[in-house]
Design a protein that fits this description.
Elements lengths: L3 H13 L8 H13 L3 E4 L2 H5 L6 E5 L9 E6 L12 E2 L3 E3 L8 H20 L6 E6 L7 H4 L10 E8 L4 E6 L1 E10 L15 H10 L4 E4 L2 E10 L9 E10 L2 H21 L3 E10 L2 E2 L5 H12 L5 E4 L5 H7 L4 E8 L8 E3 H19 L3
Parallel strand pairs: 3-6, 3-7, 7-16, 8-15
Antiparallel strand pairs: 1-2, 2-6, 4-5, 5-17, 8-14, 8-16, 9-12, 9-13, 10-11, 11-12
Helix pairs in contact: 1-4, 4-10, 6-7, 8-10
The structure holds zinc ion.
The site of zinc ion has 5 residues, from helix 4.
């Protein structure tokens, strides 16, 4: 039923349209036209103005022909990471890669291509379906900013399928962590390193002591912590007066997240005090966790839809955030589904054509499961 050639061409066309975060406009214009041609009612919301992108989120409505079916929503993000300009996709008949100078952008254009193809098939074959809403979000890669600013008053869906994960089709991510980001500034005191070092407070050394007292990496099964950026100092002959550290804590349990974030903060403050240094610590709640169970309808449907087309469903935890964190928080039970993209955010990113096709089949199977009232 899936037109492989058309699907591959559509995917290649999508990745050739540059859409790095905050510059999604060209892709959005292209998609609005496609969706309207397919007969969907399309709006672009105002989120772009709030997050300094040149486009808003696309919200499209596909009116159902079965009234009783639960309204559902599918989402994918339009933006890509860098290097993501002038992508030149190459296809050997089995696998699609970039030319090695950029990412491929299968994250998340594999999902967009599969959704467009699914809508096309539904229309062409006159397949029965309930109300379907499609969200193409902006700025996912820079902190889920599009989803956070999505105008949900426009939505009727009761659950969401977020098509945005790597791995084989049938993998269903039912839980994801919360994340806090930390920006820590340690203020020491500058002094000439040779003439009067005793008057200085070495901020780099304070940072070093503090870091050596922190446990980082995997804290427990549900919690991780990292300091990923350190910068400071100007010259070898100056006692450095300022160091900035940037890091994050993630946990699938809210209490653990807060507790461990607090612990890191305490270590910094205690160490700084020992050395008479000062600190500024900014903690930002990036996104909140969710934990769905197999009894949740959205999970249930995902499992059944996979089985119905001979795919092995596999429930798994995600280590990172996605638009699903935001949708769950906003009251839409949401799972993240794998769409076959591999090695995302690298120059080796690729996708198998087989998986692109499977994603289309899976989307159609979900729509069919919902339409048949299960
Ligand atoms: Zn993604």
């Amino acid at each position: 039923m899936v037109n492989e050639k058309g699907l591959v061409e559509s995917f290649m066309e999508l990745v050739r349209i540059d859409s790095i975060s905050r510059e999604e406009r060209n892709l959005a214009d292209f998609l609005v036209e496609k969706l309207e041609d397919l007969g969907l009612e399309v709006i672009v919301d105002q989120a772009g103005e709030k997050v300094k992108s040149n486009s808003g989120n696309i919200i499209a409505r596909f009116k159902g022909n079965i009234k009783e079916a639960t309204p559902i929503m599918f989402s994918a993000h339009m933006d890509t990471v860098v290097p993501g300009k002038n992508i030149n996709p190459l296809c050997d008949g089995e696998k699609i890669v970039s030319d090695g100078k950029t990412i491929l952008g299968a994250d998340d254009k594999a999902a967009i291509a599969a959704l467009l193809e699914s809508l096309h098939i539904i229309k062409k074959k006159n397949i029965s379906h309930g109300d379907i809403e499609i969200i193409f979000s902006i700025c996912e890669e820079v902190g889920l900013k599009g989803a956070k600013n999505l105008d949900i008053s426009e939505l009727n869906a009761r659950m969401a399928f977020v098509l945005d994960a790597g791995g084989r089709i049938g993998k269903i991510y039912t839980t994801a962590p919360s994340q806090n980001s930390l920006e820590i500034i340690i203020h020491g005191k500058s002094a000439h390193a040779g003439a009067n070092p005793e008057e200085g407070i070495n901020a780099i050394q304070v940072a070093g002591f503090a870091l050596s007292r922190m446990k980082l990496g995997r804290i427990d099964e549900e919690t991780t912590a990292n300091i990923g950026v350190i910068s400071g100092g100007n010259a070898t002959n100056i006692v450095p007066d300022k160091v900035t550290l940037k890091g994050e804590v993630r946990s699938r349990k809210e209490e653990k997240l807060e507790k461990y974030t607090e612990k890191l903060k305490q270590i910094i403050e205690d160490t700084a005090q020992e050395f008479k240094a000062k600190t500024e610590i900014k903690i930002n709640k990036e996104y909140r966790c969710y934990n769905l169970s197999p009894d949740d309808q959205v999970v249930n449907i995902s499992i059944k839809a996979a089985k119905d087309i001979g795919l092995q469903p596999l429930l798994c935890p995600s280590g990172g955030g996605s638009d699903a964190n935001v949708f769950n928080k906003k009251g839409f039970p949401s799972v993240v589904l794998a769409v076959g993209m591999e090695k995302v955010h690298t120059l080796e990113e690729y996708i198998l054509i087989k998986e692109l096709k499977n994603t289309v089949k899976y989307i159609l199977s979900i729509i069919n499961t919902v339409a048949s009232g299960e």
